[in-house]
Amino acid sequence: MNKKKKKKKSHVPFRLNMLFFVVFLLFSILILRLGEIQIVFGDDFKREIERTEDITVSNPVPRGKMFDRSGKVIVDNTPLNAITYTKYQNTSQTEMVKTAEKLAKIMDVDTKKVRDRDKKDYWIIKNPEQAKELITEKEWSLYDNKKWDYKKIYNLQLDRIKESEINHYTKEEIKAIAIFKKMNSGYALAPQIVKNKDVTPQEFAAVSENLENLPGVDTTTDWERKYVFGDTLKTILGKVSSSEEGLPKESLEKYMAKDYSRNDRVGKSYLEYKYEDVLHGQKAKVINKTDKAGNVLSQEVVSEGQRGKDLVLTIDAELQKKVENIIEDEMWKAKRQYGSTGLLDRAFVVLMDPHTGEILSLAGKELIRDKETGKLEMQDYAQGTFTTSYNVGSTVKGATILTGYKTGVIHPNDYLLDAPVKIKDTPAKKSWRNFGNINDLTALQVSSNVYMFKTVLKIAGGHYVYNQPIDINSAAFNTIRKSFSQFGLGVRTGIDLPNEMTGYPGSETLPGKLMDLAIGQYDTYTPIQLAQYVSTIANGGNRMQPHVVKEIREPVMDKEELGPVIEEIQPKVLNRLDMKDEWIKRVQQGFHMVMQTSNGTASGYFKGKSYDPAGKTGTAQAFYYGSERSRWGTPVMNLSLVSFAPYNNPEVAMAVVVPWAYQGSGPSINNTIGQQVMDAYFDLKKERQTDKGKKSEEQNPENNDTNQSDQ
């Protein structure tokens, strides 16, 4: 018995010793391992713990301005008080909702764009446990096993939220939802505009005073486009997207590749769109240094950014305004005084330097009926000068005569009998009166249709006999159109604006249609094409590319002045007429007779003018296809006018187009508009020369005194 006890006693200490030894061994290994980690890998782990991340954020800058040719600001940027929100990387949506709710108590926002989806998103954030219960255990299991992604779960939650859950929100909660939606639409660390329109001084002050309690919120200055001359030229200046619209979906990838943000404002149409790369500017760049948790440790401004570059337009803003007023006045006058002008709803004027292609005025007006009041309202329609086309009538006869010379079917001073032309089984076609035996100059002077008919029938190889059938070569249509295209008729002029149209060529090849083509009553042309056409004749045969941008300049910050020139748009000759100089001079002479001789069709408006204009009138029988759809197909008269002045040394070319001017008979609104526009151009020129002389006298009074004493 005692021996057994002793044996047991001696065995226990051995086990304890072994246990202690094992523990000691394990601790020794642990200490050695910790020492290895600290000594060998300590610096690596320290760097990992202290690791930071540099995130560069680009902040938008105001767009470039637009000036007229004399340096007057046309498009500017108006400063706006703005409230912004910057989302940090570690900011939770719950925290964002709390901030939105605080903002909703001190500012108003537009809630019209709050949708049910926005309300549901808000409900899920506010009710996480209830949202979780909308998903079954089986569905959560599929998610846990990575068979479903979170997007699938979230969409199920959205679908299962009852309408009753989201229809009880108060006005303040709806405001919070609208604010949260804007806050959540931007990138992390990129300021997102919450409100920048109609921010009241009280709202701005209240937010500023509570910034400590509104994490991520800031007050700043934003901008919006200001159109100094109101609606003048507004349709070609273009539009800019709002901060809410951001980048257009159809161009998203293109802009994102150029370092744009989704909520950046960009040009949507015409000049703003065409010159987006110039006007957009260089963004301010800020590097945000963040720790591993996403907290911003510091900010460093890499680049202050620069406002977009400025555009100097070829447009003369003062002249443009005068031209627009003339169009408006004459249209209203015609609508009031003549019962035949019921369908008249638009008119266009283009003024162009025939030697450089610079557009001095690009004016269009359109009458639109207000849907609520039913009243007609005048709106800018400058874009219609190159996006709409019409039958323009006899203004093209200069091109017809020159085509006749070129093809050799007529020669300068050839005489043709102006009498009705009748092809068997077709109605007779004639001039507005029978002029007898006339030459090419008289044909232009009195606007003979028959002279043009016989010319193009010769081009087509037809042998005309009164009231007999005639065979023509249909290739004549192409011959005439190709010749017309050298002047810019029926082709794109190359104007530096998007969406230019070419017009519509007729599809039939009957002899009667060929004759219509010769007098501008078959194919359609744009007002800008007419301006290029008459400029080509005026300058002696060079088809100049029209352009509305004259220069690109560096911006001058916070000053209403022009910076250094970056690029100057040079005149560009698109083609030279393949015709003799004497032929072109012959047509110039005919155009001069139109306006300066007693029988000229425009002499009643332009004869004896000090600026000695030349030009050609046009009247075309057409069909209405405007906004009054119930009247489509109604026979109407289109009126047009082309002109240049002075005759011996042209400095301005003009095209006037008044579609659907009247039914039956009516006022010569093309001529009244054209006369007043040309008068305005030269009156303004004289006025400026007088002002320049007075300023010169004021600046050099001593020289003036000396000159007076010498006299």
TrEMBL record:
Pfam families: PBP_dimer (PF03717), Transpeptidase (PF00905). Residues 684-698 have a biased composition (Basic and acidic residues). Pathway: Cell wall biogenesis; peptidoglycan biosynthesis. It is a single-pass membrane protein. Residues 60-299 form the Penicillin-binding protein dimerisation domain. The keyword Oxidoreductase does not apply. It is found in: Cell membrane; Membrane. Residues 701-711 have a biased composition (Polar residues). Residues 684-711 are annotated as: Disordered. Its main location: membrane. It catalyses: Preferential cleavage: (Ac)2-L-Lys-D-Ala-|-D-Ala. Also transpeptidation of peptidyl-alanyl moieties that are N-acyl substituents of D-alanine. Its EC number is 3.4.16.4. It comes from the Bacteria. The keyword Iron does not apply. This is serine-type D-Ala-D-Ala carboxypeptidase.
